[in-house]
Specification:
Blueprint lengths: L6 H4 L31 E3 L4 E4 L6 E4 L5 E4 L2 E9 L6 E6 L11 H20 L5
Antiparallel strand pairs: 1-5, 2-5, 3-4, 5-6
């Protein structure tokens, strides 16, 4: 995975897999390969937003030395598009996929809204996250 620019910066046309007939969108941070199964033939952005949900109870995690850590619930926001889809989709995931319902403060909701607006702009204009 690249960290700046698009994957196309590092993967030139002559190196593209057979199934990728057009360059990646500018926001795609993934390198593609001929051998990828159909369900993995996707353009994916890097993580665009990470919002810690401060009012939700943290999860208790056991470390290898039998001590405990508390991990807060977080929303992660990114973009994804199947190689034959005509537009990207915005993904909101809970960090570590532990929960399906979220309680956001107004400030947290505002951070999510700002990040969603950035993702929508990236998807419509082809601009990168940088």
């Amino acid at each position: 995975m690249t960290t700046t620019g698009s994957a196309d910066d590092e993967q030139h046309e002559d190196e593209r897999p057979f199934w990728l007939t057009e360059p990646c969108p500018a926001w795609c941070d993934r390198l593609h390969h001929d051998w990828e199964p159909i369900e993995d033939r996707r353009h994916q952005s890097d993580l665009v937003g990470h919002v810690e949900l401060s009012t939700m109870p943290a999860d208790k995690v056991i470390n290898g030395d039998n001590t405990f850590d508390h991990i807060p619930h977080c929303l992660e926001l990114r973009m994804d598009q199947g190689y034959r889809e005509n537009s990207p989709r915005l993904h909101l995931e809970e960090h570590l996929c532990r929960n399906g319902e979220f309680a956001l403060t107004l400030n947290e909701a505002e951070q999510v809204a700002t990040t969603l607006t950035r993702l929508i702009t990236m998807g419509r204009t082809g601009q990168t996250n940088g």
